Write a sequence for this structure.
């Protein structure tokens, strides 16, 4: 009988830990500082959202989707709304103005999410200042969202058939102002981090995921693009009017933390580009389809199944809805990118050091509202 | 008897000055970093939050003093005491002003005036890591403090060597271990930083590591090991660790100024006491500010990279630099 290796220590990281982004709990087996094995424990924020959906009408469930990944609520609303619209078969009848608003808020929200990601990711690696710079710009976006939806975190704005309220002229002014200053602010983060020697040392060749592994583990979004796949649902399976817009899909083949960092940094600029194209023409018309104006009016989709997908800042968010023709779904499955990323985490972080685990968690941008559902 | 009473008076004055300095530094750090990060910083208590440190101190005195059940109580108590004592001891030999001539000879503004001040500082700077190691071990199997203490041990060993080796150059050039003599040697020539730029840079890097400040704050990396070695501490016991760190920052900056930047010498009114005093403290304040500046700017190095920098880069450079200095002195090259 062999005696247990006393050099290997079990270290409990989380659920209360400054850099596990919420309530991730990792049980690390470490030898010195080197990690031999990781087992993640998820579910500390489990609220049974998929089951909740079965007991709520379609409209009632919209605010619950806000609580998935609370950093980008707009995109969650959008994904859900598109899934239900597909089920109803009205996805091509959405008013032009509603579509325009949807794209604008989705892209603004993407920037807002990436700003929080950048700040916290830098904070995990030890750079304190980018966080406050990022929040400064996120604040501008939140002010815009407050202007149109009245809320700053859980918007409940994108509704089935359109959006909750029409945009105001003030919103457009704020948006113009934001678009004007964002590139130079983006440059500030860039100078602080991208070519920073320490930053590069901490992130390059850390948490390397090969091209095959990335696809096998079901990664999506920037994490997948960091591993060399040029895959973006906005390009490959266009929805709304993304096919009319010009934007690039940044991807890098290194597959390390630095590559994922670069992808997200570039994505912010691409979102900015999309927004500038949107600003050229603001279509008129209703902001929501007439039949969906009243939330109290029950929606009864025909019996059937539909999968609605959208490219949210972390990856592919999917809603698979099974309808029996009633006003409540029979079953709803949410494909949460954070859950799959949390699953890939132990594989990506094995063999690295404790400090690297923190960097790798940050690079996946997992949020546990969505992971645990 | 006279010497003993004088020493006690000096010690009490030092204690008050250092405490005031640390209080002010916490405010200064927060204010400067806030400025760099587009925030306001402390504002509510007093003029621009100037009384904030007092409020913080009172708060930490009234905090419940928790000792974990598994902790080794004696060691747990002893750790902050050892740490703070050793750090204070390093401050004993630091001159706080240029010496003045009296009828009894030179009067030195340091608690203890020794001719081997550099050795004294190094001896006690090495002891500070014992406080940290004890804190890590005494936390009773709590793993984060243990990892933090491990890191501190390794960091201190690798960087104290670099620190000492970089100081060897000014010592070789001035033939003295006494701070006053080293400053005096620089009045006859240029400051040593112009003869020893390499040693200056190696010392600068090692200084950050020995004080365990960003980008080398690994023993207490809050985002990795949640404040490291003092996780289990609370109240004023916990407050003593940052307290000691601020003193270490002051001591290391003062040594930097004395060894490389000519101490209290400056371009105007040479020999005037007050001008010297002002020059001396401007230079020290710059390096203290440098610590704060780095804190707001840099990410943190990783453990193995920290070791690499010390053993693979700084140490060979420092050793070669000593060879060069020795060679140049031996053949009488006009580097001095």
């Amino acid at each position: 009988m062999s005696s247990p290796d006393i050099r290997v220590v079990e270290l409990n990281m989380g659920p209360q830990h400054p850099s596990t982004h919420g309530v991730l709990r990792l049980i690390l087996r470490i030898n010195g500082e080197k990690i031999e094995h990781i087992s993640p424990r998820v579910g500390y924020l489990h609220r049974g959202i998929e089951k909740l959906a079965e007991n709520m009408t379609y409209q009632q469930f919209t605010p619950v989707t806000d609580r998935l990944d609370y950093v980008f609520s707009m995109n969650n609303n959008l994904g859900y709304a598109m899934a239900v619209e597909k089920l109803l078969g009205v996805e091509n009848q959405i008013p032009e103005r509603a579509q325009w608003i949807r794209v604008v808020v989705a892209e603004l929200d993407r920037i807002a999410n990436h700003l929080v990601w950048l700040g916290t990711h830098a904070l995990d690696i030890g750079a304190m200042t980018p966080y406050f710079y990022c929040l400064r710009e996120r604040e501008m976006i939140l002010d815009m969202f407050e202007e149109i939806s009245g809320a700053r975190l859980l918007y409940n704005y994108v509704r089935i058939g359109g959006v909750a309220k029409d945009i105001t002229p003030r919103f457009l002014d704020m948006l113009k102002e934001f678009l004007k200053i964002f590139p130079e602010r983006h440059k500030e983060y860039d100078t602080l981090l991208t070519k920073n020697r320490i930053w590069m040392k901490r992130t390059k060749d850390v948490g390397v995921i090969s091209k095959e592994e990335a696809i096998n583990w079901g990664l999506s979004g920037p994490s997948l693009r960091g591993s060399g796949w040029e895959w973006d649902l906005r390009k490959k399976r266009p929805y709304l009017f993304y096919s009319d817009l010009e934007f690039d899909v940044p991807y890098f083949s290194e597959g390390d933390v630095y590559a994922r960092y670069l992808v997200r940094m570039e994505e912010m600029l691409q979102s900015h580009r999309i927004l500038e194209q949107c600003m050229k023409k603001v279509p008129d018309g209703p902001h929501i389809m007439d039949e969906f104006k009243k939330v109290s009016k029950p929606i009864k989709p025909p019996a059937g199944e539909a999968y609605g997908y959208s490219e949210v800042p972390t990856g592919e968010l999917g809603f698979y809805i099974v309808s029996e023709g009633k006003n409540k779904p029979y079953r709803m499955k949410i494909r949460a990118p954070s859950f799959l990323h949390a699953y890939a985490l132990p594989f990506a972080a094995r063999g690295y050091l404790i400090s690297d685990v923190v960097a790798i968690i940050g690079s996946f941008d997992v949020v546990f509202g969505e992971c645990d559902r | 008897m006279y010497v003993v009473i004088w020493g006690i008076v000096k010690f009490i004055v030092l204690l008050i000055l250092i405490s005031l300095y640390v209080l002010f530094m916490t405010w200064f750090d927060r204010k400067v970093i806030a400025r760099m990060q587009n925030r306001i910083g402390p504002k509510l208590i007093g003029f621009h939050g100037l009384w904030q440190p007092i409020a913080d101190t009172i708060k930490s005195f009234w905090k419940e003093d928790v000792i974990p059940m598994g902790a080794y109580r004696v060691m747990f108590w002893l750790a902050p005491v050892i740490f703070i004592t050793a750090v204070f001891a390093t401050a004993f030999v630091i001159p706080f002003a240029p010496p003045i001539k009296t009828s009894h000879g030179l009067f030195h503004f340091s608690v203890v005036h020794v001719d081997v001040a550099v050795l004294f500082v190094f001896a006690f700077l090495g002891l500070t890591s014992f406080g940290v190691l004890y804190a890590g071990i005494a936390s009773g199997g709590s793993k984060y403090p243990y990892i933090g203490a491990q890191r501190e041990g390794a960091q201190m060993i690798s960087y104290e060597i670099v620190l000492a080796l970089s100081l060897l150059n000014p010592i070789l050039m001035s033939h003295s271990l006494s701070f006053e003599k080293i400053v005096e040697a620089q009045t006859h020539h240029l400051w040593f930083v112009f003869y020893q730029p390499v040693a200056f840079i190696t010392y600068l890097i090692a200084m950050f590591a020995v004080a365990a400040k960003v980008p080398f704050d690994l023993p207490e990396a809050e985002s990795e090991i949640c404040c490291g070695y003092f996780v289990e501490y609370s109240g004023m016991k916990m407050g003593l660790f940052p307290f000691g760190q601020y003193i270490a920052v002051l001591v290391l900056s003062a040594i930097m100024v004395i060894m490389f930047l000519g101490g209290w010498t400056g371009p105007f009114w040479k020999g005037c006491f007050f001008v010297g005093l002002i020059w001396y403290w401007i230079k020290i304040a710059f390096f203290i500010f440098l610590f704060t500046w780095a804190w707001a700017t840099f990410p943190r190095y990783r453990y193995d990279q920290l070791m690499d920098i010390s053993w693979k880069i700084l140490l060979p450079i420092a050793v070669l630099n000593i060879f060069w200095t020795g060679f140049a002195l031996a053949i009488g090259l006009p580097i001095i």
Observations:
- Chain B has a mean pLDDT of 85.
- DSSP finds twelve helices and two strands in chain B.
- The first strand of chain B starts at residue 100 and ends at 102.
